[in-house]
Prior knowledge:
The chain is α+β, with helices and mostly antiparallel strands. It has helices at about 40-65, 100-110, 115-120, and strands at about 5, 15-20, 20-25, 70-75, 85-90.
Amino acid sequence: MKATAQRDGARFKHTVTVREHQLMIDESPQSGGNDAGPDPQELLAASLASCTAITVEMYAARKGWDIGHVEVDVNYSPAERGCPTKFDLVLRLPDTLSDEQVQRLQVIAAKCPVHRTLDGEVMFNERVERAHLAV
């Protein structure tokens, strides 16, 4: 998996390319940006919310369960001195599901790839390359 961020003229505004898709990323006006898109921290919360929803929906489809509408809210607080990174995730499922289905879907939700990545050990291999970049 690969994502590439390239500055898009304005201060802090970047176009991120993933496969054939492009996303506009920017900072809020309070942080010096123009709010042309979500900021990188918001994208992290969006990744967890969407991955959780998709994982639950895929599991339900494999089980043949028609679960209807699924909604996931994620509130994210980055780590600060003395406090770890905190994710508050709310999975909303239809009230027509049985207790057994809800319990199983809750377990499956925590197994989405983004959740596992955030919960696991992370390693970084970083380097700087000099290149002639077009303006």
